[in-house]
Specification:
- β2 and β3 form a beta hairpin.
- This protein is about 30% helix and about 35% strand.
- The chain is of the alpha+beta class and about 70 residues long.
- A four-stranded antiparallel β-sheet has the order 2-3-1-4, with helices on one face.
- The protein is globular.
- The chain binds dioxo(di-mu-sulfide)dimolybdenum.
- The site of dioxo(di-mu-sulfide)dimolybdenum has 4 residues, from α1.
- Necessary for copper homeostasis and likely functions as a copper exporter. Also required for full virulence.
């Protein structure tokens, strides 16, 4: 079964930022879908916990040039 987690994303200021973060998350193995919200500065990600975890999702966001932290 998929798990859905919300990440807080820092550093997005335009729509292209949103696309970059969304693509970075979507490319991660195990990610089923990623929905990024510029106004809320969040990303909602559905993923297979057997393949990937929230730490790896945050790392993918960082690698794309933004700060990503798991929302508690
Ligand atoms: Mo927009 Mo975001 O011109 O890193 S792509 S600010």
């Amino acid at each position: 079964p998929l798990v859905e987690s919300t990440l807080d994303i820092e550093g997005m200021t335009c729509a292209s930022c949103v696309n970059r973060v969304q693509k970075a998350l979507s490319r991660v193995d195990g990610v089923e879908s990623a929905s990024v919200n510029l106004a809320n500065e969040t990303a909602s990600v559905a993923y297979d916990p057997a393949v990937v975890d929230a730490t790896a999702l945050a790392a993918a966001v960082e690698k794309a040039g933004y700060a990503g932290t798991l929302r508690q």
